[in-house]
Amino acid sequence: MTIEIEYARDPHAVRNILESLPEWFGDLESIDSYVVDAANENFVSILARDSGATVGVSLIRRHFSESAELHLIAMSPEARGLGIGRALIEKITADLADDGCVHLSVHTVGPSFDNDAYAQTRSFYRAIGFYPLEEHSNMDWSGPTLILVRPITPAT
Fold first, then answer.
1. Per-domain residue ranges for the chain?
2. How many angstroms separate the CA atoms of 145 and 154, rounded?
3. Residue 64: how many CB atoms within 10 A of its CB?
4. 3-state DSSP assignment of residue 86
5. CB 104, CB 93: distance < 8 Å
6. Strand order in 53-64's β-sheet?
7. What is the DSSP letter of 27?
8. 54 φ, ψ to 5°?
9. Which of 11, 52, 79, 106 is the most exposed place for a label (fewest CB within 10 A)?
10. pLDDT tens digits along 61-96
């Protein structure tokens, strides 16, 4: 695999990737919402591509000049575990730092909901520098939502 990371939009690939990950994205309404977001100019879309095929997707929303939210990150099943997610996050945080951003946050299913897939997700976020901040109930769904944050070192 030769991965290229680029700023581009690919709502069709977002749908395909999310539909291929039912352990994480088993709700069609949620998938539809992410596909709409992937076409929305209010979200920055960064893709990982292998020979032109999109194998990883991420959406960023900038709430304030000092902070941004990782709204979505997902890899196709064959691309999981290859470091592509880490590469996307490193590109995102480097570019945010260059623009003066100092915090990147992400929401995911909280640890009080016992689920192996989301335990993997939380482990991934911790491994790439995110720290748990708060867990809330009924925030993004009817169960617990964990908010994690990663400090970004400003560019010098």
1. 3-151
2. 28
3. 9
4. helix
5. yes
6. 3-7, 44-50, 53-64, 67-75, 103-109, 144-151, 131-137
7. -
8. -75, 120
9. 52
10. 999 999 999 999 999 999 999 999 999 999 999 999
